[in-house]
Design goal:
Elements lengths: L4 H14 L12 H5 L40 E3 L7 E4 L5 E6 L4 E3 L1
Antiparallel strand pairs: 1-4, 2-3, 3-4
Length: 108
């Protein structure tokens, strides 16, 4: 499945806020700061979604030393005639992919 992530995440955020969800963007050192309600006036969250990405390597309470950054090359092209996505793994383990977007751009 291919999704246009910035469009989809904005949609999910609107749905979340529409049903009363609150978003607090803060810098934390340990997940316990959030669980204790440190940034919400001592109101403890009903649910917590951690999207730390590579930050999970050092975020207290969820440390994962197996997470590491990788670097790849991508190009965004204007190619509205491309409407099918694909991915392929080469024999040496490298991946190639084509991800079309609704606006006619294609990430390669």
């Amino acid at each position: 499945m291919i999704i246009d992530t910035h469009v989809y995440l904005a949609y999910l955020l609107r749905r979340f806020e529409r049903v009363g969800g609150k978003v607090h963007r803060v810098v934390i050192q340990h997940i316990d700061q959030v669980l204790a309600g440190s940034f919400t006036g001592s109101v403890k969250p009903d649910a917590l979604i951690v999207c730390a990405g590579v930050g999970a390597r050092t975020l207290g309470g969820v440390e994962d030393k197996d997470v590491y950054p990788i670097r790849g090359q991508t190009v965004l092209l204007k190619a509205p005639w491309v409407n099918v996505g694909l991915s392929r793994q080469e024999s040496d383990g490298r991946w190639t992919y084509v991800m079309p977007r609704r606006n006619g751009n294609v990430r390669v």
